[in-house]
């Protein structure tokens, strides 16, 4: 990681702690006071270094003030991540011309700090102790100063975790409220239970589908009777171990599109389609189960009406086939009974024409026309008998 990336990460971590948003708590002030006492000096400060400035978050022994980052003593060796211990800063080339040493901002001689390093290695600033007189800081004192810096970072981390937890809880609660509002807005009954058979979710559609006084915390016995769940025949109660929610909770699911009859307290029986599945934790253990009951009464009614229409259509077609057969037989019988007399009439007309010399042509034409009509009747009856005159089954779906 190059210097620019390291600085970018450091600044992001600093702002993530939101240390500038609220005044320091008394715990921080106490730690800074202890730091001054450990070093044996009258003054100490907790400094944070951002993009352009040094911010004194809390101070002991003097009135703190912010300054430009370029004027900060703490920023000079900030990138090393190492503590600083200078008995006399005016003798160190890196510090002697700093305005906090020259008198422009202060007259610091003794100066020591311990960097504030996060668990991810980002340096937020320093815990700094100093005096206007030269001073010696022992190795033991320097080590305790580093311990106090770690305590401060732990305090920052605890406050950040508390804030993140609160924000997460708020987001979770908002999502929960949104989910509950969404589930209450749909017409599908949704019920969830835990492994103790206690209801953890029971939306509006579910409440409307069952007796409002139903015992949601009762033992898993007599479930179908309690919730009025029946087999598709509408009379047979579903066994407890076959109730979709129980099947899923036992790990025998998921249950998909199981049709049942649900007798609702206000609106009467409904055909519902149940889909149920188990709920699992991160380790894969079952923690509960959820079921969704979709009202498909209209669909079931349409299906039943179609089946009834098809049954009636089949009966009508059978009757039509019988009627057509009767008509064909009747036409054949009638035509036979008509054709024979007409043939005799034709013969008598020819005999009259030959013996008496009479003109019988008009009568002969009428006999021929009658014969043609009979043949047409026979042809029509045969055609109807061939295709049966049935109504197509697709008509029942319309």
From TrEMBL:
Main location: membrane
Protein localization: Cell membrane
EC number(s) per entry: 2.7.13.3
Pfam families: GAF, HisKA
Any one GO molecular-function label of the UniProt entry: phosphorelay sensor kinase activity
Every GAF domain range: 23-163
Residue ranges of coiled coil: none
SMART domains: GAF (SM00065), HisKA (SM00388)
Every Signal transduction histidine kinase dimerisation/phosphoacceptor domain range: 326-386
Any single GO CC term annotated in Swiss-Prot or TrEMBL for this entry: plasma membrane
InterPro entries with a match to the protein in the record: GAF, GAF-like_dom_sf, HisK_dim/P_dom, HisK_dim/P_sf, PAS-like_dom_sf
UniProt superkingdom: Bacteria
Catalytically driven reaction(s): ATP + protein L-histidine = ADP + protein N-phospho-L-histidine
Protein name (database record): histidine kinase
Annotated organism of origin: Actinoplanes lutulentus
